[in-house]
């Protein structure tokens, strides 16, 4: 049996990841017949082993294909990393990066990037992250996004992460609140009505996600999926809410809100940059990560 060429294995991995010859062809900038011919040649070199079978309108990898993909993916990543080291990147070359982000880091980073005079001819498109971890990692794996910034702990060995920044979680209420002034007690916390934020990818509130303590039942007046929506509602009511200190610093004055220290133990909110290992040594991806870290540190 001849040893398959690296380019045939790369085509195989693209089809395996996309589960589609059409999408793989687009990603590889090849024609569909070219991808199909590459798979046919690979099948012949593997002694006629079937790698994909038709499944409705799509294709499904066979057990042999799954085993092959698991065996060769780490080696192909190393090869791509080595080739990336040979590529030169300059911010003077026009390029747009796509970064998946949380609401907090979107509010922080987008103005910093727009105001920066050190972006060269590069730009960054920030997009709110999908609701599931699988969708985030798939976009990175399929090169539909260059980077993700998230507070989740993604325990997947195919991805790397680096801390971008950390912040405190704070309580907020209207400056005109009739009962709460410069501090809030645990008794007041449970007595007041709350506007909550549902933590993404979990069935708990942001407060429960970030606290070390087990919080008791609260009087929930409303539930939001946006920190700014929550702040707007709190500004027009006697409710209290839990938010990020970055968002509070930027918008508390605008919404006439008071920032308070929570009356219980709260962990730091850690925002991490996450990327696929194939981009570990990519000069362009390294520049992107370093640029975002630089902007945050200088802010």
In brief:
The protein has helices spanning 6-18, 21-28, 32-45, 63-86, 103-115, 133-141, 186-191, 206-210, 227-235, 245-251, 283-298; strands spanning 52-55, 58-61, 95-101, 122-128, 147-150, 159-167, 169-174, 193-197, 219-224, 240-244, 257-260, 269-276. The protein has 299 residues and is an alpha/beta fold.
Explain this structure to me?
It is a single chain. This protein has 299 residues and is α/β, with parallel strands linked by helices. It folds into 3 domains: 80 residues, Arc Repressor Mutant, subunit A (Orthogonal Bundle), CATH 1.10.10.10; 101 residues, 3-Layer(aba) Sandwich (D-Maltodextrin-Binding Protein, domain 2), CATH 3.40.190; 99 residues, Periplasmic binding protein-like II (D-Maltodextrin-Binding Protein, domain 2). The chain is built from 11 helices and 12 strands. The strands form 3 sheets. It has a 5-stranded mixed beta sheet. The protein has a 5-stranded mixed beta sheet with strand order 9-8-10-7-11. A hairpin with a 2-residue loop joins strand 1 and strand 2. The mean pLDDT is 88. This is Transcriptional regulator, LysR family. GO terms for molecular function: DNA binding; DNA-binding transcription factor activity.
């Amino acid at each position: 049996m001849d040893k398959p060429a690296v380019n045939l294995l790369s085509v195989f991995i693209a089809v395996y990841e996309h589960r589609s010859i059409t999408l793989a062809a687009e990603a590889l900038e090849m024609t569909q017949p070219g991808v199909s011919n590459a798979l046919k040649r690979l099948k012949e070199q593997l002694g006629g082993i079937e790698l994909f079978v038709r499944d409705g309108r799509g294709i499904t990898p066979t057990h042999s294909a799954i085993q092959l993909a698991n065996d060769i993916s780490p080696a192909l990543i190393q090869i791509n990393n080595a080739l990336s080291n040979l590529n030169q990147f300059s911010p003077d070359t026009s390029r747009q990066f796509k970064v998946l982000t949380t609401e907090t880091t979107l509010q922080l980073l987008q103005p910093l990037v727009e105001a920066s005079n050190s972006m060269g001819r590069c730009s960054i498109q920030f997009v709110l992250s999908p609701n599931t971890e699988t969708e985030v990692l798939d976009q990175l794996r399929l090169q539909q996004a260059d980077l993700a910034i998230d507070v989740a702990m993604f325990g997947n060995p195919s991805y790397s992460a680096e801390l971008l920044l950390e912040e405190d979680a704070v309580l907020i209420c209207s400056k005109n609140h009739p009962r709460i002034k410069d501090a809030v007690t645990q008794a007041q916390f449970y007595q007041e009505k709350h506007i909550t934020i549902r933590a993404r990818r979990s069935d708990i509130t942001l407060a429960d996600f970030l606290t070390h303590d087990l919080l008791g039942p609260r009087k929930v007046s409303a539930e939001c999926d946006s920190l700014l929506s929550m702040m707007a509602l709190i500004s027009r009511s006697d409710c209290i809410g839990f938010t990020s200190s970055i968002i509070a610093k930027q918008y508390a004055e605008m919404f006439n809100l008071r920032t308070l220290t929570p009356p219980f133990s709260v962990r730091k909110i850690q925002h991490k940059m996450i990327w696929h290992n194939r981009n570990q040594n990519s000069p362009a991806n390294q520049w992107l990560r370093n640029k975002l870290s630089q902007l945050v540190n200088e802010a």
